Amino acid sequence: MPIYNFNAGPSALPYPVIEEAKKSMFDYQNSELSVLEMSHRGPIYEEIHYGALNKVRSLLKVPDEFEILFLQGGASLQFAMLPMNFLTNEKKAAYILSGSWSEKAFQEASRIGETYELASTKADNYRAIPFVPLDQCSQDTSYIHLTSNNTIFGTQWISYPNNKFAPICVDASSDIFSKTLDWGNIDLLYAGAQKNAGPSGVTIVILRKSFMEQANKDIPKILSYETHVKTDSLYHTPPTGSIYLLGLVMNWIEEQGGVAAMEKFAAEKASLLYSAIDNSDGFYKGHALKDSRSTMNVTFNLPSKELEQKFVKIAEEKGFIGLKGHRSVGGLRASIYNAVPKEHVETLVDFMESFLKEHK
Ligand code: PMP
User: Fold this and answer.
1) How is this protein organized at the quaternary level (predicted)?
2) Active site residue ranges
3) Which of 18, 75, 83, 327 has the most CB atoms at less than 10 Å from its CB?
4) Domain 259-359 carries which CATH code?
């Protein structure tokens, strides 16, 4: 039976990447060495490491004024590392709350220094991306943090607030490589790789050099961005296998036509699902307001919890996995990251239509 993987992360990897990895991961270029057993200081791994860093730069069109890092600890470590580096005693950090992950980032920063909520849609169960009153941003703001795509609630920013008031720092864990970015308006961006960039174990951090120069020097060396910049992310043993697979995913994105092509595919796939929701006469109800809808995580409800359970059960029998909504919000969620083929989304839409016919 074919499997249709709609997991929220770790999630589907491109099929050609899995095929390539099967061949090369355990006998790299006929060296009889697995990537996993190579020294991270040796020439073969260095080629893999710098190759992957360069591909991230070229695919995301990252300008020279930015550094790119491969770190560990997931996006969750960035929730702490960002304020440790930039939230100094005399300043405050502004957080925009658009979902559970931004709340987590806010809570972690609040343990480190002074923070404030600049905007939030919590009262509306995070159905929308908040309006940001930038004029209310206090003068002593060290940075503004936002989550570009809200994996759990299924909402996504179209464009980020202007960074002329304070540096903009973005958690792009669930939509990196799915849309082109305006670097003029970003000072730091981070993402765990396990959705659009590869397997878990490696986190991409991209930061503006001039911003990094303002970082707090008085923190443990391992948590300082500068340490990793100075050592090309080889300060300590990097997650070599994860970085190797990330490089293969970068090659695949390039072969598909780059990030602009990913953006187009994402919009096409999302519109198939949103049309199925909108044309269901209210049977399927989207969680996100239309102008905040995500192209990566499509969240929806059915008329009752019983029907939702039945939907998930029958879907699983047919090979669909990962459709159950996050435990904090319930309902259904289809995560349609870059590697999810359009045909899988079409098959899901067919299933939604037949389920609707039988149960409305
Ligand atoms: N931010 C967002 C937007 C996420 O979706 C996730 C994970 N699903 C995280 C942060 C946490 O990432 P990690 O598990 O890599 O720490």
Assistant:
1) Homodimer.
2) 101, 171, 195
3) 83
4) 3.90.1150.10
Measuring from each residue's beta carbon to the nearest atom of ligand 1, which residues come in under 6 Å? Answer: 9, 74-76, 101, 147, 151, 171, 173-174, 192
pTM here is: 0.98
CATH number of this structure's domain 16-255: 3.40.640.10
- For the chain, the structural domain boundaries read 16-255, 259-359
The alpha carbon of 30 is separated from its chain's Cα centroid by a whole number of angstroms, namely 34
How many H-runs (helices) and E-runs (strands) does the chain carry? 10, 14
Short-list 246, 203, 242, CA closest to 225: 203
Q: What letter does residue 293 receive in the DSSP assignment?
A: B
| 286 φ/ψ angles, rounded to the nearest 5 degrees | -70, 140
ipTM of the complex: 0.99
Residue whose CB lies within 8 A of the most ligand 1 atoms, among 76, 147, 327, for a mutation test? 76
pLDDT, tens digit (0-9, with 9 covering 90-100), for 16-56: 999 999 989 999 998 889 999 999 999 999 999 999 999 99
Q: Smallest Cα–Cα separation from 269: which of 346, 347, 332?
A: 346
pLDDT category at 129 given cuts 50, 70, 90 is very high
Residue owning the nearest CA to atom 5 of ligand 1:
151
Phi and psi angles of residue 102, each rounded to the nearest 5 degrees, phi first: -70, -35
Binding site as annotated, residues: 41, 75-76, 101, 151, 171, 194
Closest C-alpha residue for ligand 1 atom 8: 9
CA distance linking residue 270 with residue 232, whole number of Å: 37
Q: Matching CATH topology for 16-255 and 259-359?
A: no
Tokens 């720092």, located at residue: 169
User: Backbone dihedral region of 257: left (phi > 0), alpha (psi from -120 to 50 degrees) or beta?
Assistant: left
